[in-house]
Design brief:
Elements lengths: L13 E7 L4 E2 L2 E2 L4 E12 L2 E2 L6 E6 L2 E3 L1 E5 L5 E3 L6 E9 L5 E8 L9 E2 L6 E3 L11 E3 L1 E5 L3 E10 L9 E12 L21 E3 L14 E10 L4 E11 L20 E10 L10 E5 L5 E3 L18 E3 L12 E6 L2 E5 L7 E11 L1
Parallel strand pairs: 7-18, 9-19
Antiparallel strand pairs: 1-4, 2-3, 4-5, 4-6, 8-10, 10-16, 11-15, 11-17, 12-16, 13-14, 13-16, 17-19, 20-21, 21-27, 22-26, 23-27, 24-27, 25-26
Length: 364
């Protein structure tokens, strides 16, 4: 914008002063819609006499909207999932680098190059606005779009999906979150005005976004980022061992030259060990049961009627991280025996760990 002031004087001195309105600045630049008025005033003399100046010349225009939306994944680690898992979440940061408050319309793309597609929950429940802790949890709010995202501000968005069955270890699904900048009053996506003549009275839109990882491109009012679901399953193995603790002839023995044997009336200790391979996903709610009713053994709940004084105390079903009963398994629950079936829940067995269920029986 320019303005011209033409002066005619036969002789004398002229001074011109330019006065401008002070705009409001943010980190992303002057706010869209701010009026900038540039005024020019003049003083001059003719023949040594100060003259009456003409009216002040001025020029006004409003600052246009530089639309720049940035979406990034919130971390570098893939989200691990299991076959058939429901309500798993990938997480993104959505940042408004526009010089105005905007809405952000949300959508998802699933592109090629991966091993499977996820099943998105219904439209009304697949996006969640984080409650401030960066973790998908019950405190997050269901949304369909981002409303009134202030300039130079950002929010965390979770995209929630269900995993199909039949996927295997190390399979990946690429999920692209796409955002489109929209008017915060109407919720309608912005139109790029770069091809229109400049209008100093209107706030016009100039798209300044970069090229994201989805099908959108640079300077189109969109941006996107890709996060990844990666299948990590538990790799469980189970081993069952036994040891004779006592028999009615030699008791517990002496550990060097005399050892109890598996004769009728002897007490045997069983150990069921569950091992999850190193690097595998955590196995949750690991339940065990062992039905003794068809075997020639009876769950050892009370002391035998007779035998050496070294008979072990009747034990309850117990857990540990080793078959000698050592180690702590704090989340084990429901340990016990009913009708000849010994059962228990070991809780969670993490990758690279072993947890055990231990109980005793007498040989019939």
């Amino acid at each position: 914008m320019t303005s011209k002031l033409k002066l005619l004087a036969t002789a004398g001195s002229v001074s011109v002063f330019m006065l401008g309105a002070s705009p409001a600045f943010a980190d992303v630049g002057t706010n869209a819609g701010v009026s900038i008025t540039n005024e020019a005033s003049i003083t001059y003399s003719v023949g040594g006499a100060v003259q009456t100046p003409p009216p002040v010349a001025s020029d006004t225009f409003v600052v246009d909207r530089k639309v720049n939306l940035i979406i990034t994944r919130s971390d570098t680690a893939n989200t691990t999932v299991a076959p058939g898992e429901q309500n798993a979440a990938v997480t993104y940061n959505v940042s408004n680098q526009t010089n105005d408050t905007i809405d952000v319309l949300l959508s998802v793309e699933q592109l090629g190059g991966d091993q499977f597609d996820v099943t998105l929950n219904p439209l009304a429940t697949r996006y969640y606005l984080d409650d401030g802790n960066g973790i998908f949890d019950a405190g997050d709010s269901v949304i369909t779009s981002i409303n009134d995202l202030a300039e130079d501000d950002s929010v965390v968005i979770h995209v929630v999906a269900d995993m199909p069955g039949g996927i295997v270890e190390d399979d990946e699904a690429f999920v692209v979150l796409v955002g489109q900048a929209a008017d915060s009053t109407t919720g309608i996506a912005f139109v790029n005005d770069i091809g229109d003549a400049d209008d100093p009275t209107l706030v016009q839109n100039v798209f300044a976004d970069g090229d994201g990882s989805g099908t959108e491109g640079a300077n189109d009012g969109y941006h996107s980022a890709t996060d990844i679901f990666e299948v990590a399953t538990a790799d469980i193995s189970v081993a069952k061992t036994s040891a004779i603790l006592w028999d009615p002839i030699v008791g517990s023995g002496n550990g060097t030259t005399i050892f109890p044997k598996s004769i009728p009336g002897a007490i045997v200790e069983y150990c069921i060990a569950v091992t999850n391979a190193t690097g595998a996903a955590t196995a949750t709610s690991v339940g065990l049961s062992d039905n003794l009713s068809a075997l020639a053994v009876t769950y050892y709940a009370t002391a035998p009627a007779s035998g050496p004084a070294t008979i072990p105390t009747a034990g309850v079903v117990a857990t540990g991280t080793a078959c000698d009963g050592t180690g702590t398994n704090a989340d084990a629950t429901g340990l016990g025996e009913s009708g000849g079936t010994v059962s228990g829940n070991l809780g969670n067995v993490t990758g690279g760990s072993t947890e055990v269920l231990i109980f005793r029986a007498t040989i019939d």
